[in-house]
Amino acid sequence: MGRSPCCEKDGLKKGPWTPEEDQKLLAYIEQHGHGCWRSLPAKAGLQRCGKSCRLRWTNYLRPDIKRGKFSLQEEQTIIQLHALLGNRWSAIATHLPKRTDNEIKNYWNTHLKKRLAKMGIDPVTHKPRSGALGTGGAGGAGAGGGAAGAQHARAAAHLSHTTQWESARLEAEARLAREARLRALAASAASASASVSAPPPQMPGGPAAAHRLDSPTSTLSFSESAALASVLQEAHGAATAAAAATRAAMQPMQAYEVACKEQQQQQWGDHVVNVADAGFAAAGFTGLLLDGSLSQQDLRPATRHDEDAAEADAGLQETEEEKNYWDSIMSLVNSSSLPTSSVAVPAPEAYPSSASLQTSMAMPALEAYSSPASLQATSVAMPALEAYSSSASLQTSVAMPAPEAYSSSASLSTSVIAVPAPEAYSPALEF
DNA sequence: AACGAACCCAACCGCGAGGCC
DNA sequence: GGGCCTCGCGGTTGGGTTCGT
């Protein structure tokens, strides 16, 4: 059963690349850059289609590719990002330095998926398998459940991912709304002291700046001052719900961390991977996902080996900062009113440049409240945002990925409400 | 040693998005 | 606005390798 010919003409070579071909491609790209992939093969003297060349380069020849075994941190990051993003391998790959999306995809399909299944966790929904969905163990992907079950699982996973991204988006919007309100209040106070007949308060930087603060995907319009008050109220309510949803959605991550670690230690003995592996930015994200609301005490007795006590304590200490940091973020989101005096109102000039605006909206206000230690975590707190941003497009950078998933505010509220209860994730997994 | 099954991964395919004319 | 082209993504597969009998 041969494959149907690719879009390219016949006569082009297919299949595994020879060292000579690799050399040609490498030499050409090193000298000229890849340029247009379509015309590259001819210029480089290769009997391949451009697509094949691009694939070979991005997945194999690129110099900044790390090959070999995935570390524990990388595995955990993949699992956690997959829980958040689903099968968005390229987005996941942006948080695993030097790993390609193809490699991650393969690793997921050949290792992690099976391991999760073995642990009784549905690799699609990232939830413990319920009896109704079939208790099939490894390799039981198609064994039980049937089409309806699979569809249900996919839908649940989609909803879960949608909810989490939408939660993040709402938090960002609510934060922007609060900042806008604070700026308006500040401007109002200033103008009131200047003249009683002054025009109504405006967004610092003028209408144009106000317009730029609008979230392109938002259901809120910060520049419509007439609706501002009610919108702010609404945004706050949504953000509060979103914060709760986010916390709930992130709780299974902790179970994953512990479960994976246990699993790894059973498989590989006591080989301990250095959690503080320098330069591995994703670890910050991993840590950030650890939510303190599901207490460590709840998990430890059921899952921790005695000989791991010292290491676990160190880990707890390490995650304590992140927990506090995350709690502070959540309390900021949840707080009904920020003390005006304690909030640094950004100067108007902080917004005009599209570059700075992009940054401030992509990582909304988080950096304003982070300690240097947690800054690294902050930088990956909204992991996929930058993955989807074009350098020129603010809209893209602010918009959450997979726009089709976040179509309406109606579906949004449904999503938030439909977040599975935290207790759905039993921390006491048996291996 | 031989064979089949399972595993693994590089590479292919189809599709959609975005840019350009 | 619509067609064409290029690129990137995710799903899938073919074939090499390893494992088990």
Automatic annotation (TrEMBL):
Going by the UniProt record, its keywords in alphabetical order are: Developmental protein, DNA-binding, Nucleus, Repeat, Transcription, Transcription regulation
| Assigned GO CC terms | nucleus
What is the source species? Miscanthus lutarioriparius
Cite the residue spans of the region called Disordered: 123-161, 191-215, 299-320
**Where in the cell is the protein located?**
Nucleus
- Entry-linked CDD domains: SANT
Give the protein's recorded name.
Uncharacterized protein
User: What range(s) does the Myb-like domain occupy?
Assistant: 9-61, 62-112
Provide the GO MF annotations for this entry.
DNA-binding transcription factor activity; transcription cis-regulatory region binding
GO biological process: one example: cell morphogenesis
**Which InterPro entries is this protein grouped with?**
Homeodomain-like_sf, Myb_dom, Myb_TF_plants, SANT/Myb
Q: Which PROSITE patterns match?
A: HTH_MYB (PS51294), MYB_LIKE (PS50090)
Occurrences of domain HTH myb-type (ranges): 9-61, 62-116
Q: Where is the composition biased (Gly residues)?
A: 133-148
